[in-house]
Write a sequence for this structure.
């Protein structure tokens, strides 16, 4: 087993100890043990900078956006639109108007399905998704298929959790209208060769939706380089608050899309009979948006931008590799998802032990992991498991955290083993 | 580790690791399938009713240690009981898993103390109740 400590102190460009100090939630004990938080795929902890931005917004700048002519309303609007520009820069989108704020990834994907999908798809059309999708990138397309008569096609994934590229390409054709793919699998950790997959889909004229929920915290994302049509992510998985998410949409597509929710903020003028809709992104932001959430997300993005992201990526890569070696040495442990390109963490099962029982024992040791089907039931069923334990990393995790996980697994085997 | 030790008391560990009354029930009159949407656990519970009396209860499926132990204990407790007693115990189990005290009275039917700490683990309440809720549906048919 690799020795902990030395290697992670070696990076001169990223100091994990300093970063950890930015996250107050990490400095607590759970069941008497210092918290080891390895459920970052579900949600990350928040740095002080984000907490301060939320507080500042509510203490000083709280007003509604794009309405009030008073000072607080103007401050709130400036902060909200400033956050849009921060996100634009984060994704390297061409224009801030291509950034739509949503409640999260799920709502972003539902927006595309309900607006673009219902307007453009009909019987005979096809929607292609991969077999490793989170329910959020599967169920909206099932629903769209039911409403429009379009057919859902599933691109297969092999036993390692790698998308079968040839079979995927073979599914693409003139009928393919939408292709929806995860950038990184939440259940398996697979990093998809997304630019290549997007290019193949675009060659046959499909609109491509990328679920980036598990990617943005770990990788720099450039939507123009990826050449995707839509890219969705959640703020709370990238050190921001819950309740805020982002849909990037190519300007020409957004301009052609009908609204999906009606209300205030998304209209220019309204009579008893009809309304003239506003331009994107406002057309897709009916009602008061999550203003504080957007402010918090911008603070999270700024926080992340304060690091050398390549160094953070190298640190997280080291954790994934170190954990792979350490976990492989645990008797009876089987990885679920063994793609050569993995990011963010590991999913696994212990022979004879149920994931929920393991997670409960780990919690008793102060180690937080996710147990369950990770909202990806079809792929886990295909891989022959109902539930897995998932340990997922953030920039503040250390090799010591992995060692605590491994010790916790030994405790679980002692208590629960037959 | 105390909280976890409380959840996995000796009797739960014992029944969870070596469950009783597992498998198909010949002569079953009532049955239902139950699922825990959180983890995909699935249990099949079958009952052989003789008039108002549960002659036998068996279960099978895939479940965590806690649900397995709850199912195993349930089958032992209910064998020979009336439907009315089964419903009473079911209600007691729901109450105890919601954090209710384990009354002396409840121990006349069964000793529910092994489940007294389930309520401290909110997500696991569904595990302990999965067999009972499945039984409830089986008897409702």
């Amino acid at each position: 087993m690799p020795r902990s400590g030395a290697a992670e102190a070696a990076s001169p460009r990223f100091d994990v100890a300093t970063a950890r100090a930015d996250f107050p939630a990490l400095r607590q004990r759970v069941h008497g043990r210092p918290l080891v938080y390895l459920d970052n795929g579900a949600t990350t902890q928040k740095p002080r900078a984000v907490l301060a931005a939320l507080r500042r917004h509510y203490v000083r700048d709280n007003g509604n956006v794009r309405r009030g002519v008073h000072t607080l309303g103007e401050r709130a609007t400036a902060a909200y639109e400033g956050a849009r520009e921060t996100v634009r820069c984060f994704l390297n989108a061409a224009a801030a108007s291509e950034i739509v704020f949503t409640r999260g990834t799920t709502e972003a994907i539902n927006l595309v399905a309900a607006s673009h999908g219902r307007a453009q798809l009909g019987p005979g059309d096809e929607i292609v998704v991969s077999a490793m999708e989170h329910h959020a990138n599967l169920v909206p397309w099932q629903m769209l298929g039911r409403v429009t008569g379009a057919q859902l096609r599933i691109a297969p994934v092999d036993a390692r959790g790698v998308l079968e590229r040839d079979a995927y390409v073979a599914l693409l054709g003139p009928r393919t209208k939408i292709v929806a793919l995860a950038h990184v699998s939440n259940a398996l950790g697979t990093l998809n060769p997304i630019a290549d997959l997007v290019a193949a889909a675009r060659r046959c004229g499909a609109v491509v939706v990328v679920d980036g929920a598990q990617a943005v915290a770990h990788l720099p994302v450039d939507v123009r380089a990826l050449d995707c049509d839509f890219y969705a992510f959640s703020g709370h998985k990238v050190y921001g608050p819950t309740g805020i998410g982002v849909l990037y949409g190519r300007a020409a597509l957004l301009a052609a899309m009908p609204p999906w929710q009606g209300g205030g903020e998304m209209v220019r003028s309204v009579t008893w009979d009809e309304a003239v809709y506003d331009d994107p992104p406002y057309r897709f932001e009916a009602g008061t948006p999550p203003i504080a959430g957007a402010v918090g997300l911008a603070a999270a993005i700024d926080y992340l931008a304060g690091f050398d992201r390549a160094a953070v990526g190298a640190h997280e890569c080291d954790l994934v590799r170190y954990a792979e070696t350490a976990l492989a040495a645990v008797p009876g442990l089987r990885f679920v998802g063994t793609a050569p390109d993995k990011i963010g963490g590991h999913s696994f099962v212990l022979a004879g032990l149920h994931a929920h029982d393991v997670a409960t024992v780990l919690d008793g040791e102060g180690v937080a992991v996710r147990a369950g089907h990770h909202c990806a039931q079809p792929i886990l069923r295909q891989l022959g498991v109902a539930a897995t334990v998932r340990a997922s990393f953030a920039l503040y995790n250390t090799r010591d955290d992995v060692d605590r996980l491994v010790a916790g697994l030994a405790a679980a085997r002692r208590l629960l083993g037959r | 580790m105390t909280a976890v030790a409380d959840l996995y008391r000796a009797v739960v560990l014992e029944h969870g690791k070596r469950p009783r009354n597992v498998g198909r029930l010949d002569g079953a009159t009532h049955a239902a399938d139950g699922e825990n949407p959180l983890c995909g656990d699935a249990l099949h519970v079958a009952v052989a009713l003789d008039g108002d009396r549960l002659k036998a209860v068996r279960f099978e499926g895939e479940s965590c240690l806690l649900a397995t132990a709850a199912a195993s204990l349930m089958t032992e407790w209910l064998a020979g009981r009336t439907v009315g007693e089964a419903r009473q115990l079911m209600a007691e189990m729901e109450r105890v898993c919601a954090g209710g005290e384990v009354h002396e009275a409840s121990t006349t039917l069964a000793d529910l103390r092994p489940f007294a700490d389930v309520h401290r683990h909110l997500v696991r309440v569904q595990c302990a109740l999965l067999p009972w809720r499945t039984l409830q549906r089986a008897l409702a048919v």
